[in-house]
Design a protein that fits this description.
homodimer; alpha+beta; Glutaredoxin; Glutathione S-transferase Yfyf (Class Pi), Chain A, domain 2; four-stranded mixed sheet; 10 helices; 7% strand; globular
């Protein structure tokens, strides 16, 4: 299998961490791709009309988009019920939490595009404020969850949360999340003890 | 359960159609909500920091975001394996197709915000062209799938596709998808025979 990949993408990082933790990383070839909104890329659009990272390209040529569905698929390949519990009370809690975190990443990415990619004279502060606020309020919610999450076996929500925080460091270095959310900071430190989390840290901005 | 809802939201429409088809609509109270990007809404942000539609509010107060995960949850409530096959070769095909369609809806929504909500002097044509192109190329891909989809029992990918096409009619009435994609047009006509699809058509723009 191939995975379209950039070290800057928090969604690609999520899949990479999952693949390492599931013992599948050796079966996946990372394919470096750079994507930029508002720029045509006919070659990559043939792989995915959505022009986003990551995409898992299966050995038969089929493509799978959306980091969440890719992780679900890898989880099943690895036997199932590893990073997304197959049953039980935690199953929907973890899926719910993951959806929130995925939405926070989407909001942060839109915020970055607004503040750093869009031509300066076309930026709309109310838009980026609103999207940053979605991520920030989301972090406040997970500040209440961080201790419980640290105590659980690894799951897709924990992986997504570390990707949110790593992306905040990478693209919003001055946002002050560590001061505002000390329990998230402790969670992040604990997660960094995992080689999968450490090796996949985004590059220096 | 309650579902935050707007007749204009293609994501809320997807959940509504699924709930009707799963026989669960009578257990769900539709809660009208209007969301607007770049506008604060402290009340709704308390329900979901992502400030998006739809949200399923469970009877114990827990919230579930993301129309896909909500449909998965409702599917399990209805016995499982109805709109998302539990096993078999179609399972990952349908999940993959649904992810593409979900991404097409995201791109169309960003396009609408750019062209119709953002202050006129701040619009970036390359951004909206790129996002429209993602949806349009995605439709081209589903033009190849439409006949096979029509022949299958109802699933989440078919529901998402009818929501993409309905949203194109609603917000991009002049885009010409019917002429460009005649098989999608035939698919859409067939889907409209279902009361769930018909009752949930978006309002006139």
């Amino acid at each position: 299998m191939k995975l379209t990949f950039s070290p800057a993408s928090p969604f690609a990082r999520k899949v990479r961490i999952a693949a390492i933790e599931l013992g599948l990383i050796d079966r996946i070839e990372l394919m470096p791709v750079t994507v930029a909104p508002a720029t045509r890329d006919d070659e990559y659009s043939k792989i995915t009309p959505l022009k986003k990272l990551p995409v898992l390209i299966l050995d038969d040529g089929d493509v799978m988009v959306d980091s969440y569905v890719i992780v679900e698929y890898l989880d099943e390949l690895a036997g199932g019920g590893k990073l997304v519990p197959a049953t039980g009370p935690l199953r929907w809690k973890i899926k719910r939490d993951h959806s929130l975190l995925q939405g926070m990443l989407d909001a942060m990415l839109l915020c970055r595009y607004e503040n750093m990619v869009r031509p300066q004279e076309l930026r709309w502060k109310a838009w980026s404020d609103d999207h940053w606020n979605r991520a920030w309020l989301g972090m406040a919610r997970f500040e209440q969850e961080a201790e419980a999450m640290t105590g659980r076996p690894l799951d897709i929500a924990q992986i997504a949360l570390v990707c949110v925080l790593g992306y905040a460091d990478f693209r919003f270095a001055d946002c002050g999340w560590r001061q505002a959310y000390p329990k998230l900071n402790a969670f992040h430190d604990r997660m960094l003890e995992r080689p999968s989390v450490k090796i996949s840290l985004p590059p220096k901005a």
